Each structure stands twice: as structure tokens, then as C-alpha cells.
Amino acid sequence: MRIAVLASGSSGNATVVEAGNSAVLIDCGLSVRRLEGRAAELNFDLQHLTAIVVTHEHGDHIGGVGALARRYKLPVYMTHGTFIASSFGEQRGIDVHEISPHEPFSVGSLQLHPAPVPHDAKEPCQFVVEFEGLRIGVLTDFGSETQHINQHFANCNALVLEFNHDPLMLDACEYPDSVKDRIAGRLGHFNNQQAVQLLAKLSVGPLCHVLAAHISERANCKSLVEQQLAATLSGTNVAWDVAHQDRASAWITV
Ligand SMILES: [Zn+2]
Ligand SMILES: [Zn+2]
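^ thats the input. predicted complex w/ zinc ion below
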């Protein structure tokens, strides 16, 4: 089972998880052409995708989904809230499957476990993907930790986790106050300190890879995230890396 993040950040997100004879793309906030370029970096043929799964209706997650679904004739899975908050009701020729954010479902040989998350979208969820007892979690775009999140994303073998911003850098950056409040709010995005605290709880058990994701280009810097990851995970067997906006990550295999 393997995962790669093709793009991560407020300009577009896409993550591929592959196992057995199936592969799912979680979100697509990029154009088809850009996504094809990222897939080529990974030697991954998008024809191998089984489906697209959408976490929520924000443009950096859903902006490229319609075009990709039509181009590669892929079914799209999303919650009812995401469906009604997006333009998918008006888009023709797309096979949309509505999911419950509380119930697991299958995409080919993969089992997807959605979890509702606190984020300022209509019915957002994030996913654990399971294959033959192995679990990979993707957890971004949530503003606060919940008991349910802690339970749901425990016992993952690999985890993509949001390290959106550094609170001091967010405070000092040129965003309007309303945007800063939204990002730092309980329905916004996780900051570095929150992420390492959550990671300390989740890095017991089988976790062996962490990929820091959705890193703000204006209110964070990768070296700061790397320092925090190194400090938190030193002495553990957990390997870590950071995901990029402008290029694909390496494959992580579990
Ligand atoms: Zn986002
Ligand atoms: Zn979002």
C-alpha cells in the first residue's frame, strides 16, 4: 500500500492512495494538466485511478474534480453537504456517489473510513484508507482536535497531517484580520503547535511515516515545520517529510 501527495497547500491539494488493484485520489484542486504533470513525476498513470473522493467544497480541494472526472470517466464520492455546496448538481456526465461521513465504504479493494471534522464547510470529512489491515490517514482542513478525530486517526501506519501555520507568522503576515481570524479559528486550520501535540498522541502504535501538509506559504515556513517534526519524533521510529505545493512528494510505502 502506498501514498503520495501530488500537491498540498491553499493553491491546490491532491493525494493518491494505491493498494491491490485500486487507487483513489483524495481531492483535486489542480487543473488536469497540472495533475498529469505531478503524476508523471511519480511514474503514476492516472488511468489507474478507480475513483475520486472529495473532502469538502473549498476550491483548493474540489476545483479540478469535475474536469478530471470527465476526462478519466471516474466516479466521485462526497457527502450530501459537499454536493449541495458545490456546483456538482449542475454538472452533467459525472457519476456522483453521496456518502455518509459516518459510514465506511469500498472503492475497489480499498476501504474508506470517513470522519467528520470541524471546518468551515458544509459537511467536511477526512479519511483513513484501509487495505488488508494497513491504514493510511489523511487529515487536513480542520480547526480543532476532537475526541472522534483522535480515535479515528489512531493506529495508522502512515499519516498526512496538516501543519498550516505558525501563530506568530500568521499574526505578522499581511492577511486582513478577518482572514487571520478564520484561519486560526476553531473551524479553520491547524497550526504547528497543535499539530505536534496531536502527533505526539497519534505516534504511538504502528505509525511509521508522517507527511506534514497544507503548509501556508505566507504564514509558515518549511524549516520551522521540520524543526518541530524532528523535535517531536526524535527517538521514535517514525520517519517524516513535508509535502509541497509545487511538486509531488515521494511515494510512502507501508
Ligand atoms: Zn484546504
Ligand atoms: Zn478547506
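The chain has a mean pLDDT of 96.
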